[in-house]
Amino acid sequence: MSLLIGETLAELVRNDVVESIHVGHFVALNSDGSIMMQRGDPTQLIYPRSSYKSILASAMVRSGVVLEPRLLALTCASHSGLEMHQKGALEILALAGLDENALQNVKGRPLDEAAALATPVATRLAMNCSGKHSGMLLGCATNGWPIENYLDPRHPLQIAFKNELEILSGEKITHTAIDGCGAPLFLISLLGLARAVRALTISVDPVHQRVVNACREFPEMVAGPNRMSTKIMKIHPGVFMKSGAESVMVASVPDGRTYAFKVNDGGLRSREAITVAGLKLLGVEADIELEKVYGGGQIVGSIRATF
Question: Tell me, what DSSP letter sits at residue 162?
């Protein structure tokens, strides 16, 4: 499978001339699930990366995991590695009767720059997926499943994840890869990802409501105080959003309007501009500072979405 070219989603403009473009795929859904707008091919198969952690967390809760909202939000996180995130992961592990040594995610340093400077040695706890992995281990302990191979795609926990995603997206998963943290990663279409997030948002299932509401209530646990998704969810109550590596993003509002996008180059430079334009389609005017283009120390342009 190869990534299709798609369409231009954002442009870098320098002194009124388009200097660079960012190409990819974008789809927005109406509240009834119909396609509101698309750019590129919404059936493009992608790796959702961390953008679908809320769906994995739903499977954890469905399998019996019980967590207060603050910690449940952390299981959905690509956190900044702050003290509150690392301590939260340890709280989840303690509920399973485990400690940091049980984690099998790769080691990493905090995404937060100040925290990274204070953490010279990479650890599993500081790595941004430690909340998800702690939740996985609690799921295993809750059900009496083995913990030593919890990242095996054939493990009951991973099968539960796959089933939850298939139900919410309406698609069958035919390919499984390995995510950056070491966990199984399911290939899905961009449209399937958008449909899954929409279904999660409007679901009357208490499991889904618990997960989405936890992220809305504790957005600082989902990312971090200085991160875009946390800022937007705090300023605009009701918005649910989650980023993923390689420039994947999903967002939804309570009535089910949803969007998802993937920028082909995987870079983050255009993410804010596309995110703000996408939120506007959902009826949300997000007032966040977009990336500026400099020349000679002065602002000479910007990065702008093309829709």
Answer: H
| Residue 122, SS3 per DSSP | coil
The structural domains of the chain, with segments of one domain joined by +, span 43-254
> What are the contacts of 62-65 at 24+ separation with CB within 8 A?
62/160, 62/164, 62/207, 63/139, 63/142, 63/143, 63/157, 63/160, 64/139, 64/142, 64/143, 65/135, 65/138, 65/139, 65/142
Averaged over 243-261, what is the pLDDT?
98
Q: Helix 53-62 crosses helix 156-169 at what angle (to 10 degrees)?
A: 120
Looking up tokens 């939260």 gives: 88
| Residue showing tokens 């702008």 | 304
| Residue 21, pLDDT above cutoff 90 | yes
pLDDT of residue 119: 87
Query: What residues does 294 pair with on adjacent strands?
Result: 299
- CA 74 vs CA 62, 70, 176, 216, 306: distances in Å: 17, 7, 24, 12, 33
